[in-house]
């Protein structure tokens, strides 16, 4: 193993602000840091190393090279550090990323825009607001929009040409009063866009313009003696005012600020972020970050502030925090209020972060307690079945078919007594014709464990077959052919009396009906049945739809499958424009099929 001559390397490091990078023996960046004085900061890792904590000592032991970049200011160092951490994702750095993909509210970029929720940002689709870490807030805003406005929910292409050519008819949403019928030109686009603008203002936290809009509409209707319309706008105004009164937490004169609070313990750091506009909290998120090295709370908070402002596209000129930032951000004032409305905001943020930390600790304690209970059940199952190992990994198989049609087999997987849904699998029999459960079980078991053997993946601790001696015998034969028989325990469960069968044993085992281990086996069996029957119904429905489409002249099975895969539903296929069909099937064929679809649809 090569060693690092840190003394020679330190001789080249200047006393300037900048960013440094540590590399391991393989040339991988393992840490990125910033410093007001590079020489002093880098030297601190190697001088008095016995005073470092365990994690820092481990970092130093792996350093084989270092590089540095000189910058003008500490702020420039913060920017570069943030960029390099995102680029290299070093294992010793705190990575401010959240595994959850939070939803956004999107106002689509099309005639008569829709308001939708979406998790992946594509700026071409429309204008995005969010992300919303608090789903309750997002849905309360969407519910308010339904009360105040009549936005369309359909996917029709409401171009001026399509509307003029009367291609569409109003749907149920129009008849129940949820839409004003722009598809039949019953609402102008300019009138529709005025309401979209109000929604945009609300999402930006600006309630003043929407309130003014409803006040003007109410007074205008009253002046024309349209008292019913005036009452409608009065009710909408009251709804908006009521929503704002519940959402306003401080003086509305606090126009645009970001609030951050941070607390820490030995293992982790917790922080809360609130984005406030006109006294209205438009965003809020709490996160936990595991500690990596001897980072100060000020440094970590500064990184968090930069990251969250970038994530939420904040342009606030003031950042309220409970401790000072380690670097002064350009064009941004850092405030630590002691009294007044801003102090109330900071106290609210601190209350949120402390509650978040307590909730995390309570959940962890609950999971540990639940883990003990699950282990007890698995131990009971091990003893009841008299197998050698604790069945932490169990796989259960079930066959589904109705009168031999659309057969499908399902395999569900439980790990540590809980469903592991990412490991669930469906199988469509390839070699079996007709309703033959025994042959199907043999094929499915063979395919499943051939795959695991080829991939050198972990085998289960227990295999459960839904069925009696016949299915169990077929599954056992498959394991014998693979050389796995006797290496992995396998049982069958018969539905009628919940009998447990073992291979080559005609006498079943009856586990106490109240036993937790039997309940676990039943849960696996029922889950496999549910998973299989759901797939069976989907397959049967798809085959029925395809047969419907095949009855139309010009559409064969392959074309039907292609159309269904592309458009999703039969309804969407009938609504498809000639141009959409043309891109999929070619001009001549699309024209012919469109004519047939219109004839069938008109019948």
Features:
single chain, 603 residues, alpha+beta, GIY-YIG endonuclease, Nucleotidyltransferase, domain 5, 5 domains, seven-stranded mixed sheet, five-stranded mixed sheet, 18 strands, 47% helix, globular, UvrC_RNase_H_dom_sf, SOS response, UvrABC_protein_C
The CATH architecture classification of the largest domain is 2-Layer Sandwich
**In one word, what is the shape?**
globular
Give the helix tally: 19
Strand % is 15-25%
Backbone CA Rg: 32 Å
CATH first level of the largest domain: which class? Alpha Beta
The parts where pLDDT drops under 50 for at least 5 residues are none
User: How many DSSP E strands?
Assistant: 18
Helix percentage: 40-55%
CATH superfamily placement of the largest domain? UvrC, RNAse H endonuclease domain
Mean pLDDT over all positions = 81
Distance between the termini: 81 Å
Largest beta-sheet characterization: 7 strands, mixed
The assigned structural class equals: alpha+beta
Number of domains: 5
**Which fold name corresponds to the CATH topology of the largest domain?**
Nucleotidyltransferase, domain 5
């Amino acid at each position: 193993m090569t060693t690092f001559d840190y003394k020679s390397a330190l001789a080249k490091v200047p006393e300037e602000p900048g960013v440094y990078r540590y590399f391991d023996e393989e040339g991988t960046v393992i840490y990125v840091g910033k410093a007001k004085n590079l020489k002093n900061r880098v030297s601190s890792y190697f001088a008095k190393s016995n005073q470092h904590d365990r994690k820092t000592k481990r970092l130093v032991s792996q350093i084989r090279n270092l590089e540095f970049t000189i910058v003008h200011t500490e702020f420039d160092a913060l920017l570069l550090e943030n960029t390099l951490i995102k680029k290299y994702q070093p294992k010793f750095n705190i990575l401010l990323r959240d595994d959850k993909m939070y939803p956004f509210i999107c106002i689509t970029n099309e005639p008569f825009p829709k308001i939708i929720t979406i998790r992946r940002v594509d700026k071409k689709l429309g204008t995005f607001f969010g992300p919303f870490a608090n789903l309750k807030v997002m849905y309360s805003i969407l519910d308010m929009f339904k009360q105040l406005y009549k936005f369309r929910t359909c996917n029709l292409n409401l171009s001026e040409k399509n509307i003029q050519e009367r291609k569409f008819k109003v749907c149920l949403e129009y008849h129940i009063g949820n839409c004003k019928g722009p598809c039949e030109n019953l609402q102008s686009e300019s009138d529709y866009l005025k309401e979209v603008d109000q929604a945009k203002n609300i999402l930006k936290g600006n309630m003043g313009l929407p309130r003014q809009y409803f006040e003007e509409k109410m007074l205008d209707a009253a002046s024309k003696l349209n008292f019913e319309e005036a009452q409608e706008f009065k009710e909408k105004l009251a709804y908006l005012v009521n929503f704002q009164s519940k959402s306003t937490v401080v003086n509305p004169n606090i126009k645009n600020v970001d609030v951050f609070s941070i607390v820490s313990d030995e293992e982790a750091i917790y922080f809360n972020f609130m984005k406030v506009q006109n006294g209205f909290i438009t965003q809020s998120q709490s996160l936990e970050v595991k500690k990596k090295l001897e980072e100060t709370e000020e440094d970590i908070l500064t990184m968090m502030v930069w990251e969250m402002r970038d994530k939420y596209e904040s342009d606030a000129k003031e950042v309220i925090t409970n401790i000072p930032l380690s670097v002064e951000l350009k064009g941004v004032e850092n405030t630590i209020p002691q009294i007044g409305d801003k102090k109330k905001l900071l106290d609210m943020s601190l209350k949120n972060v402390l509650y978040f930390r307590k909730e995390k600790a309570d959940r962890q304690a609950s999971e540990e307690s639940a883990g003990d209970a699950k282990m007890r059940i698995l131990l009971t199952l091990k003893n009841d079945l008299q197998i050698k190992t604790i069945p932490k990994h169990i796989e259960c198989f079930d066959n589904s078919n109705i009168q031999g049609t659309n057969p499908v087999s399902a395999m569900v997987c439980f790990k540590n007594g809980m469903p592991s849904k990412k490991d669930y699998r469906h199988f469509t029999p390839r070699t079996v014709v007709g309703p033959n459960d025994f042959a199907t079980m043999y094929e499915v078991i063979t395919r499943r464990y051939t795959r695991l053997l080829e991939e050198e993946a972990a085998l289960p601790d227990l295999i459960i077959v839904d069925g009696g001696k016949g299915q169990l015998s077929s599954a056992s034969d498959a394991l014998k052919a693979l050389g796995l028989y006797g290496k992995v325990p396998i049982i069958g469960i018969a539905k009628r009396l919940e009998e447990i069968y073992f291979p080559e044993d005609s006498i079943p085992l009856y586990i106490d009906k109240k036993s937790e281990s039997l309940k676990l086996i039943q849960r696996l069996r029922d889950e496999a049945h549910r998973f299989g029957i759901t797939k069976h119904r989907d397959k049967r429905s798809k085959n029925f739809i395809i047969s419907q489409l095949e009855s139309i002249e010009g559409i064969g099975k392959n074309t039907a499958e292609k159309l269904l895969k592309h458009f999703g539903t039969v309804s969407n296929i009938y609504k498809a424009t000639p141009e959409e069909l043309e891109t999929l099937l070619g001009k001549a064929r699309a024209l012919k099929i469109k004519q047939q679809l219109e004839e069938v649809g008109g019948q």
